[in-house]
Amino acid sequence: MALALAVGGTVATQQYGAGPDFGPNLERFTYPWPVQTMTLDVVGQPATMSFMDIAAPRPNGRTVVLLHGKNFCGATWESSTRALTQAGYRVIVPDQIGFCKSSKPRAAQYSFEMLANNTRRLLASRGVTRATMVGHSMGGMLAMRYAIMFPDAVDRLVLVNPLGLVDRSEEGLPYLDVDTLWAGEKKTTYASIKAYQQENYYHGTWKPSYDRWVWMASGMYAGQGRDTVALAHAKTSEMIKTQPVAHELYRLKPPTTVIVGTLDKTAFGRQQVPASLRQFLRAIPLVAPEAVRKMPKGTLVRLDGLGHSPQVEDPARFEQTLLTTIR
């Protein structure tokens, strides 16, 4: 059975259940604004870092950088970007190396330091010396690392349901090597992504508007580039596991606001631990208060009734909170 699917401004004809093939770098998925690229070397090979740079119609002189999570892309920030630019902010939205429209070098050894340094180079190339950094999920870990490495380049830090607030190894999360993680990533489908997000991100609920982002994520796995995408995600999963920021929260100098959807069930790696230990992997809303107390200028904002991705689940409410926070 054929199905016509409109996603990101494109229409993909697919066999029922197969999912659209958007390419390993989302070559056939349309972003809401023009995508530009910056070329850099990764292990001696050229790689491209994709990004959007959106000007405000009435600029207020400030720049906001939006950092995506592991299971999302720059395009996921579309509604937030519109709200920010209408409020006068210039918005820069990168896709990190290893994700979405950016290159996925097979030889890359991923670290948050590398991603932060790439982001710093990108901003410098755009003439931006200081910005408000907003990071969601894994992007929250990156935003924290960026602020630790470049404290004078950050005027405010906003973390949306961030990972990395606790060291999951201390809670019993075992190490899995890249090959084991890679084998698991190769099994990724639209159905597996949706099931995970419905349970952990959206507290058992689902809206048709979420499908766009699941098709986007699964569309990178649908074609011949599947192994390349799976390897990049395996390596970045290892990065998240082995590079928590939890022990360095005291190093966050900028004013930091942690926005948490209280119904978020995300506890990175929960599926990798024995069932008897899963109860000890606390979800983000449970670890956030203690983490914020360790931040020199930390503030916790709770969004009751929302989950891991409040910017997707209730854009208007999230955007009002964000704009109030960064003013």
Task: Please describe the structure with a list of short key phrases separated by commas or semicolons.
10 strands; Rossmann fold; globular; 8-stranded mixed beta sheet; 327 residues; two-stranded antiparallel sheet; alpha/beta
Percent helix range: 25-40%
The H-level CATH homologous superfamily, spelled out, is Alpha/Beta hydrolase fold, catalytic domain
Gyration radius, in Å:
18 Å
Distance between the termini: 51 Å
Point out poorly predicted stretches.
1-17
Helix count equals: 10
What is the tally of beta strands? 10
> Strand count, sense and closure of the main sheet?
8 strands, mixed
Estimate what percentage of residues fall within beta strands.
15-25%
CATH topology: Rossmann fold
| Second rung of CATH, namely the architecture | 3-Layer(aba) Sandwich
Helix-strand makeup class: alpha/beta
Order of helices and strands: EEEEEHEHEHEHHHHEHEHH
Given this structure, which CATH class is correct? Alpha Beta
